User: Fold these one by one.
Assistant:
Number 1:
Amino acid sequence: MKYPILTLSAALMASPLVAADPPAQVFQINCSACHAVDHMVVGPSLVEIAGIYRDNPDGFVKWCVKPEHKREGVIEMPSMAHLGEPVLRELHGFILKAAAGKTELKKGNGDPYSVPAAMVRRPQVQRIFLPDASPAAIAVALPGDLSYCFDAAECRLRYVWKGGFVDGAPYWKSNGSSLAKLQGEVVYREEHFPLTWPLAGEELPPRFLGYHVDKDGLPTFRYRRGGMVWTETIRPLAGGKGIAREFTTDGAKDMTAVASGGATVVSSTGSPGIGADRSKSFTLDFSWK
Amino acid sequence: MIRYLSYFLLLGSAAAAPFAIEPMPNPPGVDPQIGGVDALPDGKVAAAFHRGEVMVFDPATRSWSKFAEGLQEPLGLLAESPSSFLIMQRAELTRVKDVDGDGRADEYETLFDDFGMTGNYHEFAFGPAKGPDGSLYVALNIASNGAGVRPEIRGTWSDIGELDFKQMIHDGSWGKKSGKAGRMYSRVPWRGWIMKLSPDGKTAEPFACGFRSPDGIGFDAQGNLLATDNQGDWRGTSPLYVVKKGGFYGHPASLVWRDGWDKGDPRMLPEPELDAMRVKESARFPQGELANSPAQPVVFPDSWGPFAGQVLIGEMNQARMVRYLPDDVAGFRQGTLIPMFDGTPLGIGNHRLAFGKDGALWVGKTHLSWAGAEGLVKIVPSGLDKVFTVTAVSLAKTGDQSVLRISLSQPVTGGSDAVKVDRFSYHYHQDYGSPKIDEASVAIGTPELAADGRELVIPLQPAKGAIHRVDLGKLRAAGDVALEGKVLYYQASELP
């Protein structure tokens, strides 16, 4: 008895005493958006509900008045206290009747639209909720076995992983409450934008401008940062032990390249310094063990 | 085949207009939930899908070709040309464009992303709707306490609320604290707002607030911005709004982002105070009866006979759509909702709508794990000059007598003496949904039929704020033809 009877009565006090509508209509109005007879929609099927509450109408009413968060990856039901106890009891009977003789539809194995890991087209871009990034994340599969997360809110590379691409089914199968899973191990995390200059961080926040994809599907990201418009194209280094990042800017700025997390960076200028005379176009190679 | 089908439907039902409703094949390997649809000048149809593909359907070959991919939950698509589309996805409004002319998109240009995201699943983004002056409008959902927020968010965090940022982060104990988050919440900018963008998308202004889940924005034939919203907290039943700049449309969460807001947590304000602040509904969809989750509004083209110029609204949860007939009373645009496509094989999940140049209505279906359906459906009307339906409803007053004037597309030949009217309303309150309240039958005077039989005048005493349900099920036109749309739901937010 998690919720004292007092709470239940108080919640029901203001409710109508008799059902104005037949239970089937009450169900259609209040329940049908989320509950179907024989399969899970947003909430469990009537078959499953009937299984739980067949001999427990009190428990059913209590749950409807004060639902809780019970299932992982499933949202919490809103309270149905406004229906009142008599209507909820009728609804209980209606659900048992509707579920009688029915069985839960068998779920298919996995996601009918997923592509086997070995057949993932590379390169490709997929915007989806990813771990360890803002909600404006973009997943990019590179040729080979590297993929990376570009964060459109921060306008920077967040991490690189090795292996497969993403499993988006947890996100796509529902209404977007779950993150996609990385199909591999993160091999490089970048803690900050990989170039710095005296005023870096004191300027306007960066702005994401979009991306271009080439014939193969490889993206070039565009953003405004530090008063300049940048483009950044990331490709795998030979051997898969790193990435080559081609930058362009429309400005002239003295900058320094900085790697994160034990990676080494080699600049096309021959040193970590990118002089104002070279800032229009340069490449940084990041590699790790 | 279509001709035969129409003929069959005409014979089969004297009540419904003859609509040939045909599901199109789905693109292979694509999750066929459709978030955006538009018809192209060449007769093709563009659709945006749940997992981010933009596909173009050729009705001539009944085949799909891929235009773009990789978007996140696109929930609106507007064709600028056959090679350039504006698409609202979770994080931004994007122009997706084929620059090199190979038929595949190569540019994904961010037009507008200056709004917050907490990562909460319910922060869907809708639009764009294009206004008469070319301005673009997008609508931003508020978050649901079905989940918390993510550790990393985009945009400025609002400290207004019982739980602070750390407490709002989703974890295993979320269910224990979710009640304190507010049923729906707006903790980052412009959640619950409709934003107006300049035609080039370069400048944006917050336009109107108070929205919960406005999954349908669009313009009527007179250039008014319409928005539907979904039953829930502060939505006793789903509303339709005519949206004006600066208006507050009822759901308080988004008020925290109003310029100069100094009244603290808006959901803690007394309901009467919020009720006085809000713009009233232009129409309401009785939950479970007319519609549960209304979607996109579009305007019928001239080729749709008696429906031309009216507004058609999608519906997710019931096997129909809904028409809206406006009525300007005391300077306020309210009006009538009428069921449409009842008794046809349309089915549920009617989410995104677009009319082709040939008049065909294209319907994109989705569910996103709620009630709904999938795929693209084509609706072709025929015999529209014979359709018997209501074309206008106005509430008027002469002297002390109020009347409802109902215009019809064909002369009435019988049943005007069997008209019934009742009324009801719903609470405006924080609770989720509302029972019907103030239910009463409405005494009416003798309905009068105009000399040409095309106008029915019903004397009655309207109740301010109520939905007036007018049952015209017995009305007949020549040949014992019943109405397409037998019940009117007139929202009397204002009285003449």
Number 2:
Amino acid sequence: METLIDFFTGTLGLGPTLALSLAYATAIGSLLGFITVYAMFAIWMERKVAAHIQQRFGPMEVGGWHGWAQSPADALKLMFKEDIIPSGANKVLFWIAPAIVFCGVLAGFIAIPFAAGVQIVDIDLGVFFIIAIASIEVIGVIMAGWSSNSKYSLFGAVREAAQVVSYELPSATALLAPILVVGSFKLGDFNTYQAEHGWIIFSNPFMWIALLVYFIASLAGCKRAPFDLPEAESELVSGFHTEYSGMRFSFFGLEEFVSMLLVSAITCTLFLGGYTLPFNFLDVANLAAPFHLLGVAVLIVKIFAVIFVQMWLRWTLPRMRVDQVMTMGYKYLLPWALFAVAGTAVWHVWMEG
Amino acid sequence: MFLDYHAVLVFLITGVAMVSAPLILGFLFRPSNPYPEKNMAYECAEDPIGPAQIRFDMRFYTTALIFIIFEVEIALMFPWARVFRDAPNQTLALGAGLIFMSIVFLGLVVDWVKGDLDWVKTFHNKRRVQD
């Protein structure tokens, strides 16, 4: 962002206000373009992964090659669908709920560094900010469930709120471990640290526990199977978005995939080296000017590896029961997360201090 | 510093705009043909009885309370983790952190023993608390 502003004022000689607005337009345009293309690809990928795990083919017709145009066609179809508002619904809450759910996740991307210098702003509270802004989603979900005037929606919403809120504790605690090692909240600092000292996951044995806890908790936070209780279709029809249709419904689906991207980006940046290569054998961050953008490709490959594991789990494991979900969150993940943080601190003092 | 949170505001507004733009665009194309049966809340083809904004289970309230307590405690641990590396006396910082963490864990144990973490509250658990 600052680089962009410098480019617009310095090289093109524009005024500061114009440069700022142009920089915002570029940042917003590229981020939204990336998210839209990613979401369409991820939906197609999910259907393909699911199909091949179940020995089917998945979409094969639309667009020719392996049904690549299935997601754009679906998006277009959803736009032409009628927007039904159930009788007795609270219209204002019903209208703004998808926007609240979506904009919380979108704002989380501000702090993600995609490559050296390719970051919208390196917020000084980075990790903390992402945890905080991503949990706005719960408010939108409760609004959607409460305002729909449908019992399935209400039960789905309160279940989801209880689950997401419970799994925020282990995920926030597990993120303390990399912060302890690096000593910063800025996500940019995590990348520079890992370029120098190797990936954080290899810094001590407790970090593996922290990564595992964060990965499981983030699955639950994204409502991915085996934690997709809020949308358990055999008991709650479709959970909190039962009454939504057309474009509004598609934003809840889009939000699920975008939040998968966000948590995978956090996992990669905090534990798996961000945009640096293993053992830093090619110093991606310090390559000559256009080649440092290779970092984007490295990060995206890592993100898709994590997303593939999430999809793989979804089609392998059966859904958990609601009491098992609560037991898992409070009685297993939270103590293990605290153990990982304490172990990292002790390791840091006795092994390195 | 100014730019940081300026950008957050701009992106929140962008999020709302991105949701509303396809809806407004779709308004030009999509049909609008509501009738009472279509607008009825979905309950698997049964007529819904009464409003849906009913009271729900107390367990969600307990979960929310437990969440708030632990979340505040974990939020208090973030500054500790941030300055731990630069602390002049690391052993003291480690001791302070471990004491705080054990207090958090003790709170978890208390909830656990009292049965507030159990989703299905059995008669057995209730008896144990009263004894």
